[in-house]
Automatic annotation (TrEMBL), chain A:
<dbReference type="GO" id="GO:0031966">
    <property type="term" value="C:mitochondrial membrane"/>
</dbReference>
<dbReference type="GO" id="GO:0004366">
    <property type="term" value="F:glycerol-3-phosphate O-acyltransferase activity"/>
</dbReference>
<dbReference type="GO" id="GO:0008654">
    <property type="term" value="P:phospholipid biosynthetic process"/>
</dbReference>
<dbReference type="GO" id="GO:0005778">
    <property type="term" value="C:peroxisomal membrane"/>
</dbReference>
<dbReference type="GO" id="GO:0008611">
    <property type="term" value="P:ether lipid biosynthetic process"/>
</dbReference>
<comment type="similarity">
    <text>Belongs to the GPAT/DAPAT family.</text>
</comment>
<dbReference type="GO" id="GO:0019432">
    <property type="term" value="P:triglyceride biosynthetic process"/>
</dbReference>
<protein>
    <recommendedName>
        <fullName>Phospholipid/glycerol acyltransferase domain-containing protein</fullName>
    </recommendedName>
</protein>
<dbReference type="InterPro" id="IPR045520">
    <property type="entry name" value="GPAT/DHAPAT_C"/>
</dbReference>
TrEMBL record, chain B:
<protein>
    <recommendedName>
        <fullName>Alkylglycerone-phosphate synthase</fullName>
        <ecNumber>2.5.1.26</ecNumber>
    </recommendedName>
</protein>
<dbReference type="InterPro" id="IPR016164">
    <property type="entry name" value="FAD-linked_Oxase-like_C"/>
</dbReference>
<keyword id="KW-0576">Peroxisome</keyword>
<dbReference type="InterPro" id="IPR016171">
    <property type="entry name" value="Vanillyl_alc_oxidase_C-sub2"/>
</dbReference>
<keyword id="KW-0808">Transferase</keyword>
<dbReference type="InterPro" id="IPR016167">
    <property type="entry name" value="FAD-bd_PCMH_sub1"/>
</dbReference>
<feature type="binding site">
    <location>
        <begin position="250"/>
        <end position="253"/>
    </location>
    <ligand>
        <name>FAD</name>
    </ligand>
</feature>
<keyword id="KW-0274">FAD</keyword>
<comment type="similarity">
    <text>Belongs to the FAD-binding oxidoreductase/transferase type 4 family.</text>
</comment>
Amino acid sequence: MSIFNSIEYDDIIYRHRQSSDLLWSLKTWHHPLFDNKEQSIKSKQLINKNTQILSIITPVHYKILPRNSEQIKSDVLNSLALKYTIETLNNETNTYEQAKTIIQEMSHRLNLRSARFLAFIFAKIFNQVYENIYIERNSIDYIYHLYCLKPINSSTTIPSSPITISSTLFAILNTFSRSSSSSSINSDRNLLPSPLITKHYITSPRIIYLPTHRSYMDFIILTYLCFEYNIPLPCIAAAQDFLGLGLLSNLLRHCGAFFIRRSFRTDLLYWTIFDEYVKTHVIHGDYPLEFFIEGARSRTLKTLLPVRQGMLKSCLECYFHRQIDNLILIPISINYEKVLEDNLHANELLGIPKPKESKSGLFKSIQILKKSFGTMIVKFSQPIHIHDAYELFKKRQENKPNSRCDTFDRCIPRGIQPRSICQQDGFNELEQNFLNELSYRIVNEQQCLTIIYPITVTAFSFLNSSVVMPKNRSISMEQLFIDKNTLFIENTSVIEDFSTHYQIFWPSNDDKNNLKQRLLSIYSDVFELTGNNHLKLKMTGDRLVDAALIMKMIMYRNTCLHLLAKPVYILLACQVNSQSSISYKQLKTYYNFFIHLFAYEFVYDQFPVDNIDDKYFNKYLTYWIKKNYILHINNSTYEINKNFLEQILLITSPFEQYARAYLLIYEQENILTENNLSILIKIYQKNLLTKLDSQNIISILASSSNVISNALRTLNLSNTSTALSQLRYMLTKIFQPISIHLRAKL
Amino acid sequence: MSTEGKGEITTTIPLHRQELLKWEGWGYRDSRFFLNPNGLIEFSGSRYLLSGHVLPRLKDWMLNKLNASTDNYSPSVAEPNPDYIPEPILNNSFITDFQSTLGTTVPYSSDMNDRLFHGHGHTLEEIWKLRHGGKFDRLPDWVVWPRHHSDVEKIVSLAVKHNICLIPFGGGTSVTWALICPVDEKRMIVSVDTSQMNKILYLDEKNLTARIQSGIIGQDLERELAKKGYCTGHEPDSMEFSSLGGWVATRASGMKKNIYGNIEDLVVHITMVTVKGTIEKSCLGPRQSTGPDIHHFIMGSEGILGIVTEVTMKIRPLPACKKYGSIVFPDFESGVACLREIARLRSAPASIRLLDNEQFLFGQALATDNKGMLHSLVDNIKKLYITKIKGFDINRMCAATLLFEGTTNEVNQREKFVYDIAQKYNGIPAGEENGLKGYTLTFMIAYLRDIGLDYRIVAESFETSVPWDRVIDLCRNVKKRIITECEKQGVKYPPFSSCRVTQTYDAGACVYFYFVMNYNNLRHGSDPVHVYELVEQAARDEVLANGGSLSHHHGIGKIRTKWIKQAVSDLGVGTMMSIKQYLDPNNIFGSKNLIPESTESTEHLKAKL
């Protein structure tokens, strides 16, 4: 797989297979910022004394960083914010005891010994199930740079070589004696000769890792990498449902996971504790944070919108209050060739309930370890420096000529807000807009780093039909290569508008046999081989099982759709009147219509707002004309070129299917009276599932809880009662009669 | 120097300031740092404690810390360049009228050097321009030296009659561009130098007040009062040269405000001549509930409303005992916590200042000639004690300097009290001498900039005030911002970025920042003053974002008007504008300080649209 050469990419699996996992897990690991500090006995006394007194000005003394989890807990419990909240609540029950319980339940217990244990286990697992795990060397160098460490050399051998028996013994001693005498070995970790390093006010960088969330593996992988590369282990925000995992959840806790409830906005006490807990990490910078901005594992394997802002908001508030001088966000894209729990995802989307997290389920999943999950590629985006981003944002807002704010609508300046009191709605309009833009930018940057695996192309090919998927559809290898070229290679120049960082993971030299073997071995539950060497789906005949299988294909196809979305809307719109030509104005209207319709379905370069004039429209139109897919008839009318119908239908098929699925959803009996979205989704899904047709892609798509929720959210976006009928009208007009016609003809 | 007449005093400052003071830098002509033949830095003259002393470690500090080099010598020009001095705009009818009515009693001048001296303050930009020949786009066209309140009244009425622009001039120590003449001012500009209004009119020993003319400078005032056993206790760092009128016009703050108060606490009565006549209260009652206090828009008006001519000020008997002191802390955080505690207990000495680690180390570099073996041995033992036994980290340590005043008893009690608190915060008393050194350093700082400029190093200071809970964050963030901004602007060498907490209040503190940068090998084509300005602006933005004030005592001038709306709200600026509009509709006091210039026109435009 040619593009992943060892100069740009570090393959940790390859390296680990060459050395002992046990020795690796016991290697010397030290915090790059704090380990080197010297503490004489006298100064330790000083610290203790300091911590008692200094609370007036700074609750935490720099010398006790990094704090252990107990200290963090007590810092939160002793915080002024919590004190104030408890005073506000002032009810009979013992609020402080409640707070203690909450923090006990929430807190992580990050320690290196557990991390080593987990590193050992997962080194075994990863080596077993993954062929390669690729990490971009550049991105690690960036993080090293943030920590003012020397970047790793580009030679492939370094991290494996220092693992010798003696250093391991030393590490073992260290692990159990807890003394920080490791400095003798630390000395080789030279700090960059930056003049800034020696000064105390140059504090540790406040880093927040923001990975995509597709699988449970996501919880482990970053900690694993940090351990591998000797950078501080992050604290990971996890949902409280994981507490059901018992032993494993405890292990996760010891590796830095902290557990928060799914929704607690109305619970002031919980909210205060959560806010303080996050902030204390950010403010003191002893641990980086990691959280999943999508809020949950995205079962559809594409970005889960709208993004969750809660965590980011608390972090940003520290910056707005200037308790920290900068905040560094690193969006991360974790690309799995095969997602560990793709079966579960498909089932859940079809409303088959997620099994409760339990130990037995965990042991069952050990079966999984016997399979191969192909390659994993972790890509780090360029760090976003909040200070620069916010300055830039403010400058752009100044230039905007819009509304001067109402003088009677006072917004309290940050400078006069008390810093120690937790305010749920402390953000002013500017800051909120920044947060919106930033959070969207994060998912956008994650998605820019997409990897297109062979399965994505295969899914594209299999699902290439507007409505019905023939039961015995089979695809030849040659077709896959043709489709890959049609979809991605030929269209590179428009895809690059969205991202120049996406990559196609494909057998080198277009080796057909290799590709076939790969697909069959990794996705043995999906594909089988027909007599003429064609791939075929393993259909069982069971309605739900088959639907789940197709859903899985849809999921893998989803991983690339955002790259194509906007350019394809033009083709899609052209198809509307494929009998006759379409005017420029109409084309543009449809184009904008699609952008808004799929606002929650696909990630764009920016979140669509009302009355947008998309800057890419003309560009894409010219592109398709140049490519001869669209014919420029005269002045301002366009027509689709029927010679390329096959290619066009391939490219547009997923979007057409989504649009038709939306139409199907909008055609359901109007039950908009229910206000709770999640209940509403369940009602819709129940209705649609009863009519589920396992041959019909649209029926399957429309039964997906995620598609239903996105479709309903789009209604809320325009927030008018007429929206539904309008959308229905538009979609009917576009899709009902003509294009079915067209397919029939083909 | 005349001594005739009642209230006449020995004045330090001559009519033509450039005779005594440097035209191209800070302070007295005879006092400057220079590289002596031995290659060491020495301070000349005989006016200061440091005068005639060699500072053996200073050069090394400059070389090591700032990467300066003695090869990069960039001296100032010797004389202002006459070609740079713009032709004066003269209003002949005013001049004839002036000569016929006041010509005999009020000195005036249109001399190039006088004009140049009255057209600038002491920001880096201004000094930079002076050192390159004095290329200012606009200078005052005339300078007049009134002697009495009535002279000022006459000058102002003549100015109104002939539509002349007046700019009051006190000590000329402004660091806000307040004395820079507006470039687009087409009228004749007359600088009204108050230095001849320097008399103490009377002492009221029953009420402990004094009626003083506004042009008196700090050192003269204290000296004259001391002769009678009194003092005002107002000692801003610029007290050698700054004037009472200037203090009032900028809301000055003195080092010893903990005992004596800031200018607003010291002033009992102010007389100001405006375009429409003289404004003053008719009563000396110590506190009055007579609507918004008119003193409070005179104080801080920065010369745009009128000329302060006479002030009644509180005086105090001279303290019986004056004692310096110093404390070293293991780190800045402990120091701030200690200051906060002292402020909380309202037991601050007359002055308490906390230097950060950078300044603490810099202070070591300013030590004078080695005083023999024994002395340095003692120093070394002290150092060992603090770093090894007490566990202080030399790169984190910082120091506070203290000044106690009062009766001997009070001083001793207060001293013990303060040191006891300090001990709780791991502070160790470090002796009187260090305290005294610290305070003399205050007067040296401005001289130091001049030698820096000689070797391609620029420096500036700025100040702010901030609530207690933000002090540490603000100091850290601003210092860091200066460094990162320098990197961004392509400054090759790490700058010196340092701060000190100079005043404590019940609810916050005043913080002073120093920023020194070596502009050698700047990115090609960038102008050091411009780079420096960008860094300073970024630092000010950072201060504001950290909840610091726009200024604690320097004022707004023209350098900070772009932030004033943000600082006091649109309506606040509007209110100031309407006061200005009422008192001075034709903008006679046209220095354009305080109120952002563009406000009016854009507001009108918007209204029309």
